[in-house]
Design goal:
The protein is mainly alpha-helical and 157 residues long. It folds into 2 domains: 1-79, no CATH class; 87-150, no CATH class. The chain contains 6 helices and 2 strands. A two-stranded antiparallel ribbon has the order 1-2. Helix 5 (118-131) runs antiparallel to helix 6.
């Protein structure tokens, strides 16, 4: 597999996690390579996947200065939703339609397509609460302004 772009959705570095060998002084890289069960990444063996990650790091201007001691892959057929490249156009059309229905609003990471950590989710919940009137209706104008700020949330480790 030849890599000319960075196919990684996530790359975490840190100590070995549960069930993984611990090598003091050696980093553990945990990449996420989105794929479908029909493509070469899914069918790749551990060595091939390590090569894809190393090439992706090289494309990003990073190098692996020490030998790779071990590679272990875990394949999940459906870990996260898979979006088409033009998903945002379709999501915005549905979101606009739903926004026009009195008493209906979207929330959460799927409803807003805004990923984040627990503190981001809590911030969204508190914001929603602040924008609901005591008698029930939502202040849509203020809520929409607030929703746009959620796009700036960045997942943190």
């Amino acid at each position: 597999m030849r890599v000319d772009r960075i196919p990684l959705a996530i790359l975490e570095a840190g100590p070995a996690g549960p069930g993984l060998a611990h090598n003091p002084g050696r980093p553990l890289l945990s990449p996420e390579l989105p794929c479908s069960a029909a493509d070469s990444v899914w069918r790749g063996c551990d060595g091939e996947l390590a090569n894809v990650v190393a090439q992706a790091l090289s494309v990003a201007g990073l190098s692996v200065p020490s030998p790779i001691l071990a590679v272990a892959s875990r394949k999940l057929a459906q870990a996260n939703p898979t979006h088409a490249r033009d998903y945002r156009e379709h999501l915005e059309r549905v979101d606009t339609w739903l926004g026009g229905i009195n008493g209906v609003f979207t929330r959460g990471r799927q409803g807003l397509l805004a990923h984040g950590n627990t503190h981001h989710v809590l911030a969204r919940a508190y914001a929603l609460d602040r924008h609901l009137h005591d008698d029930g209706p939502l202040d849509r104008g203020r809520w929409e302004k607030c929703r746009h700020t959620f796009r700036a949330h960045v997942v943190e480790d």
